Amino acid sequence: MGDGKNRVFSFLGHWFTIAPVARHTLAPRRVSASVPFRLTVPDAKYGDIRLSGRLHHAPSETLLVVVHGLGGDVRSHYVLSAARAAEAAGIASLRVNLRGSDRTGEDIYHAAITQDLHATLASADLARYSRILLLGYSLGGHIVLRAATESTLDARVRAVAAVCPPLDLFVGARAIDEPGRLLYRRHVLSAIKEIYTEVAGRRPVPLPLAEARRIATIRDWDEHIVAPRFGFRGADHYYGESSVAPRLATLAVPSLVVAAEHDPMVPAHTLLPVLSGARPPLDVRWIDRGGHVGFPARVDLGFPGPGGLEDQVVAWLRDHAGG
């Protein structure tokens, strides 16, 4: 690709990352009626942890479970787009809040907190569904892929998709902590500090709130907040134990990774060493025009159906789900 074209596509990577967030802030996306989803899971440190979400029922035996990225929640623009795509496909959907992301002060979360996802799938509220599809964005994409490598995966899970997921947490943290990504890093840190502030108001936390608020990098957050909270010896231990990259060969179900060549938050160079040798059941699709979990209105991944990113991904999931 020529330098001029590369600069244009790089600019579009930033545009498609920022513009959907701005647009959603000014005019929030709307979805069909939903009901609250609530669940309590046991935790060795805090006791019972309450989880929440929004459940969209449909006259279908198939359920799409959508997991947001770091700092997001069930109201994030891409999560709502996924719910709309599920509705258009005639299937039910569940938008899941990772623990504490609903700002209730329950707890914080990390990149491999799959136990909450497994507990969610086992909920009595979801017993009616015979086929489950998982769709995660960014860190949520890492979580659903990690879950798909574990023996505790619900047998009803038929296919998994991850959009713009970090795969190697070592290189992912190093990339977003680079000076040129300051804007994005501050945005993410601001959101997870809000979550931490709520937790600090009702539970013991690893670091005093004033010190936590001064943290300026993702690695320092993982070193001083995530690692001690969840029993890791430090950020390197957390990354080594949690990264899904070395586990991808053990995926139990058909899995899709959608990555943007000009993603400014999860750069392509952090994914290429992991994805270049991908083999079934892992399918990889790269998009040249797009940003971090934000894409043009029409995207062609080579799948049938409408051209929106979520419509295409849901089509892939349904095609690989069987039944």
TrEMBL record:
GO terms for molecular function: monoacylglycerol lipase activity; short-chain carboxylesterase activity. The keyword NAD does not apply. Signal peptide: none annotated. Gene3D superfamilies: alpha/beta hydrolase (3.40.50.1820). It holds the Pfam family Abhydrolase_6. Keywords: Hydrolase. Residues 64-295 form the AB hydrolase-1 domain. Belongs to the AB hydrolase superfamily. AB hydrolase 4 family. This is Alpha/beta fold hydrolase. It comes from Polyangium fumosum.
